[in-house]
Write a structure and sequence with these properties.
Largest sheet: 6 strands, mixed, barrel
Order of helices and strands: HEEHHEEEHHEHEEEEEHE
Distance between the termini: 66 Å
Number of strands: 12
Strand order of the largest sheet: 7-11-8-10-9-12
Structural class: alpha+beta
Shape: elongated
Oligomer: single chain
């Protein structure tokens, strides 16, 4: 009985180990990205070079081993990721095996992008069928693809869950045939003639329409963020204001969607940003705090690059007014 149990336990552990080995998980952060590979029976530096599209000398140098020396079963080998074997272009999924990042607690999509060569946010959303920016701890997110790998991945885990509803079950039962003839149309009655047409012209209205002086949001694409701002601030009644210099960061967000970094507003807060020089304003969603580096000293907000154009400025630093949930 004990022997049977031990055999079953070994089998379960073997299957679990094989499953984990099938997922290529990226480790490190830019510019030192890599994957760890455990050597299997019969593998050599030559076969690993083919699998991971990397010269043998690069793998040997990274692991401080001789290119002429054989590998040992179970040995852990560090495989560097660089322009030669790693792609994060929009069309990368067409030719390579996916590489994954395991989401950590409180990790944001923006931080994930920064740590992985600033991969465009839209690419991450597309590769993982994401409909928003939320990430769930311990899920696997595709952050790029291995170029031309020969069978590096045998199993593809389910990426970050998408909000796609399940398809309705198909009903193959044929519909019953209705042989009942359609009823004949009712005869047209002439006893109720149509009411007479009133040809009296409407009175002229010579009062000019009032001029619309209220500024409008720069783009209709931010209408969703505008409605969220109204909900968060009770239509602007519970809003706090802030004035000072702003900066910008490069983003590949969809057209009309603006994002921000802010030190006090919570993640997900919608901030109304106004350029007082021309009255233009936009609504931006907070991703996380402003990185504490010298170039960001004194900034009250950083906006995605497309927001700058919408506000009518191209200055690296610009004066702005903020309004958001207090």
């Amino acid at each position: 009985m004990v022997k049977s149990f031990m055999t079953l336990a070994v089998l379960v552990l073997s299957v679990a180990g094989a499953y984990a080995q099938d997922i290529i998980q990226v480790q490190g952060s830019s510019p030192d990205l890599y994957v760890m590979h455990t050597v299997k029976k019969g593998e050599t530096l030559y076969s690993l070079g083919r699998t991971f599209s990397l010269p043998i000398k690069d793998i040997a140098a990274e692991n401080n081993i001789s290119a002429d020396k054989g590998l040992q079963l179970g040995q852990n080998i560090k495989i560097p990721l660089n322009a030669a074997n790693f792609s994060q272009k929009a069309d990368a999924a067409a030719g390579g095996a996916p590489l994954y990042h395991k989401v950590e607690a409180s990790e944001t999509l923006y931080r994930l992008s920064l740590n992985h060569n600033k991969v465009p946010l839209d690419n991450i959303r597309r590769w993982n069928n994401m409909t928003g920016d939320g990430l769930k701890k311990d899920t696997y997110v595709i952050i790029g693809y291995l170029k031309g790998g020969s069978g590096a991945v045998a199993h593809t885990p389910t990426p970050a869950p998408a909000n796609t509803p399940a398809p309705a079950p198909v009903n193959n039962t044929p519909a019953p045939v209705n042989n009942t003839p359609a009823p004949a149309p009712a005869p047209v009655s002439n006893n109720n003639p149509a009411p007479p047409v009133d040809n009296t012209p409407a009175p002229a209205n010579n009062t000019p329409a009032p001029a619309e002086n209220t500024p409008k949001p720069v783009t209709t694409g931010s209408a969703t963020f505008e409605s969220l701002y109204m909900q968060q601030t009770s239509n602007g009644k519970n809003a706090t204001t802030e004035k000072g210099p702003g900066g910008w960061f490069k983003s590949n967000a969809a057209a009309g969607k603006y994002y921000a970094l802010h030190n006090t507003a919570q993640r997900g807060t919608i901030i109304k940003v106004t350029n007082p020089l021309n009255g233009k304003f936009i609504y931006a969603k907070v991703l996380e705090t402003i990185p504490q580096i010298k170039g960001n000293a004194g900034l009250i907000i950083k906006l995605s690059d497309s927001a700058l154009e919408a506000l009518g400025t191209n200055d690296p630093k610009f004066y702005c007014e903020l309004s958001y949930e207090n």
